[in-house]
Amino acid sequence: MSERVVYMVNGSISSWRVLVCVYEKGLPCRAHRLRVMRERKETRSPEFLAINPRGKAPVLVEPDGVVVSESFAILEFIERRYPEPALLSREPAAMARELARTHEAETFACAYEGLESLFVTDPSAMSEGDRREIERCLAAVEWELDLWESRANESTFIAGEALTMADVSFYPTLAYMLRRGLSLAARPKLDAYQRRMRERPSCARAFPEGWTHEVGKRDLFALARSIVGTR
Ligand SMILES: N[C@@H](CCC(=O)N[C@@H](CS)C(=O)NCC(=O)O)C(=O)O
């Protein structure tokens, strides 16, 4: 038997949710950070490709050598293999809600995804189509936020009164967007939720290295609004 390893990319939502899960379960583990911002990405090293031929993190390597890739597969694997403390309810309606919201967090991330192009695109070189896409993304994120705000208004956690897999999946998605400039000023319940979540030992420990709770160097939401405002 050797140690449990989570291969992860710092600040990536999919890696982040796996780390929160592992820490919530209290499983001993070593987070192995793969650097992707340098010319030779560590996700493309022969050693890592032998573990995951897609060259994507996260990957969980269990002490007995079992390898699991894909963040949602990892969450499910962990829940099945280590059922306590439970991250899914037994009661069918609650379980259904928790599972749906676990995966809906990815729909939320997809709504935002188009704004990531602003990391590399010069706004003055954008086509009208590019601008329309930014506008569409901003509207999609707003729609998502209304939905999640109403959920945060209903209960302490995002799918009920106890922390579940839905929080493990959703919180990093929200926290990631906050880092990119998302404002929750008009969404008090979600704001209170993310402040509660970030204090949990699991979330504090999984928080990306070198990040703070302030907006990062590039405020993508402000940039997006300025682009849309000039149309
Ligand atoms: N569907 C996968 C997505 C994994 C993924 O896209 N990981 C990115 C995070 S930045 C990655 O490892 N990128 C490194 C690369 O493409 O070299 C999951 O949920 O685990």
Describe this structure in words.
The protein is of the alpha+beta class. The protein folds into two domains: 5-81, Glutaredoxin, CATH 3.40.30.10; 92-229, Glutathione S-transferase Yfyf (Class Pi), Chain A, domain 2, CATH 1.20.1050.10. It is built from nine helices and four strands. The protein has helices at 13-25, 46-51, 71-81, 92-113, 128-154, 165-179, 188-199, 201-206, 220-229; strands at residues 5-8, 30-33, 59-61, 67-69. Strands 2-1-3-4 form a four-stranded mixed β-sheet. Helix 1 packs parallel to helix 3 (71-81), helix 1 crosses helix 6 (165-179) and helix 5 (128-154) packs across helix 9. The longest helix is centred in the middle third of the chain and has 27 residues, at 128-154. The chain is globular. The model has no long low-confidence stretch (mean pLDDT 96). Bound molecules: glutathione.
Radius of gyration, in angstroms, nearest whole number: 18 Å
Uncertain spans: none
Q: Please give the CATH architecture of the largest domain.
A: Up-down Bundle
Summed up, the helix count is 9
Report the major sheet: 4 strands, mixed
Strand percentage lies at 5-15%
